[in-house]
Amino acid sequence: MNNDARFLPELLRQSMRHWVAGVTVVSSQHDGLQHGMTVNSFTSVSLDPPLVTVTLANDTRTHALVEQAGWFGVSILSERQQELSDRFAGRVPDGGDRFAGVEVVERAGRVPLLAGALAGLECRVVHSFPMSHSTLFIGQVEDVWQGPEEQPLVYWNRKYHRMGG
């Protein structure tokens, strides 16, 4: 095993491919602009108070909107929403507006959430921890809704997979 610090980022990247993750789209809006991106760095931190975390690259439009608005939404995708995951990951050309033609839910009007998702959370940023290339945002869940009872979209080893059952 090579513990040379120069190889650590690549070894970590390869190792993390073995971590099975659900797929979410994190979204925000501010001053009439909205944007979202596919994220699997999403975690529930606490039920009381209701806190979740997301990590966003500092150079993304979504990061800028979350920072400006102080709010973010999390749409937990179902297995039939792979196309939306690809769209919000930038794999499908979208002319700059990833929400064009996408049905959204805006319960309190703070953030756009994807219709048909397994669940949607509206979160108010309560802490942020800047790092060199990304920021960890901790959000207090202010509203949550549940969508259809379906299987989640799962990502493992750089590919989508279906859960058994």
Which characteristics define this entry?
single chain, Pnp Oxidase, Chain A, 3 helices
Can you tell me about this structure?
- The protein is α+β, with helices and mostly antiparallel strands and 165 residues long.
- It has one domain (23-157): Pnp Oxidase, Chain A.
- It has 3 helices and 12 strands.
- β4 and β5 form a beta hairpin.
- The mean pLDDT is 90.
What order do the helices and strands come in, and which of them pair?
Elements lengths: L7 H9 L4 E2 L1 E7 L2 E7 L2 E6 L2 E8 L3 H9 L1 E6 L5 H7 L15 E2 L7 E2 L4 E12 L3 E13 L7 E3 L2 E3 L4
Antiparallel strand pairs: 1-11, 2-3, 2-6, 4-5, 5-10, 6-9, 7-8, 9-10, 11-12
| Cα-atom radius of gyration | 16 Å
CATH-derived topology: Pnp Oxidase, Chain A
Label the CATH architecture: Roll
CATH superfamily: Electron Transport, Fmn-binding Protein, Chain A
Helix content: 10-25%
Any low-confidence stretches, pLDDT <50, length ≥5? Answer: none
**Structural class designation:** alpha+beta
Q: How many strands? A: 12
Short synopsis of the structure:
The relative contact order is 0.22. The protein is α+β, with helices and mostly antiparallel strands and 165 residues long.
